[in-house]
Amino acid sequence: MEKEGKYIYGIIGANEGRNFGNIGIGGRGDVVTTIGYQCLSAVISNTPLEKYTISKENMSVHTKVIEKVMKDYTVLPMRFCVVADSAEEVRSLLRKRYIELKGLLKDLDGKIELGVKGFYEEMKPIFAEIVKENKKVKILRDKIAKSSNTYREKIRLGELVANALKEKKKKEAEEIIAPLKKISYDFRNNETTGDEMLINTAFLIDRAREKEFDNQMNELDDRHGKRIRFKYVGPTPPYNFVSLTIK
Q1: How confident is the model at residue 120 (pLDDT cuts 50, 70, 90)?
Q2: 228-236 vs 40-48, strand pairing mode
Q3: Residue 242 lies in a domain
Q4: Which of 39, 46, 104 is nearest to 75 (CA)?
Q5: Measured between alpha carbons, how far is 152 from 159 in angstroms, rounded to an integer?
Q6: Does residue 241 form part of some domain?
Q7: Burial of 193 (0-12, 13-18, 19+ CB in 10 A)
Q8: Are residues 213 and 231 in the same domain?
Q9: Which residues contact 28 (CB under 8 A, 6 or more apart)?
Q10: Which residue in 183, 230, 189, 239 sits closest to 207, CA to CA?
Q11: Which of 41, 51, 119, 155 has the greatest CB tally within 10 Å of its CB?
Q12: Could you tell me if residue 208 is inside a domain?
């Protein structure tokens, strides 16, 4: 019979036997339960000793388990596919890192993660703004319009526009998220992709301030809605502020 390990979803600040249901990763219907040490527990399910592929399905199961646990506990989420060889290895993790884990749970207690992304609705007016705002871009664009030998100038113009867009997005993003940062305990700016995305930020906030954060997002949408489209998600597991693995 193939040896089984323990898939670890996260750590909670309680040592009580819990059964979260037959929702474990791998499609076998493994029960998600806990392994405890003093006043900590790891949320686990049985699993073959193998690496799971990073697929939408597997990541979804991993996240949904943590989200279910979050309904009752503050959770320190584990990175995807952290598998211990045995229950004793899980207890050893809790024992060796007990003080660290207790401190992290204290920091996250009563807090939730919310994610905000922002995208320009249309790029044509944004590029028009860059021409209007940037004298070098306007001069070179006008020169190209009057010349037939423009290959190098077009490359240079592309570089100038790309740099101007980068700076424009940075400035506008900082202005937009400033009121959200005031509400937040902490925040993380993540990488943006493509010309349209200017905001990709995670916020850690006190749960009691979630409604205040919602209201601020509504105000931002009213103010920028015709120009910027916002994607607002949460509460989610606080992956941007803690993501554990077995050392």
Answers
A1: very high
A2: unpaired
A3: no
A4: 104
A5: 11
A6: no
A7: exposed
A8: yes
A9: none
A10: 183
A11: 41
A12: yes
214: CATH? 3.30.70
pTM of the model: 0.81
The per-residue pLDDT for 68 is 93
34 pLDDT more than 90: yes
Domain end residue (candidates: 48, 75, 109): 109
- Could you tell me if residue 23 is inside a domain? yes
Same domain, 162 and 55: no
Cα four-point dihedral sign 64, 80, 7, 205: negative
Residue 221 shares a structural domain with residue 120: yes
**pLDDT tens sequence across 135-189:** 888 887 878 777 766 778 788 888 888 888 999 999 999 999 999 999 999 999 9
> Per the structure block, which two tokens stand in for 108?
């996250």
Measured distance CA(27)–CA(2) in Å, rounded: 17
Burial 165-180 (b: 16+ CB within 10 A, else e): beebbeebbeebbeeb
Residues 127 and 36 in one domain: no
Phi/psi for 113 (5° steps) reads -105, 135
Question: Can you give the residue range of the structural domain that contains 63?
Answer: 4-109
Residues sharing a CB contact under 8 Å with residue 58, sequence separation 6 or more, in sequence order: 25, 52, 80, 81
Contact 9, 83 (CB under 8 A): no
| Contact (CB, 8 A) for 28 and 7 | no
Both 85 and 137 in one domain: the answer is: no
User: Nearest 5°: CA angle at 53, between 188 and 40?
Assistant: 60
Share of the chain above pLDDT 90, in %: 61
Q: What is the pLDDT of residues 202-236, one digit of tens each?
A: 999 999 999 999 999 999 999 997 899 999 998 88
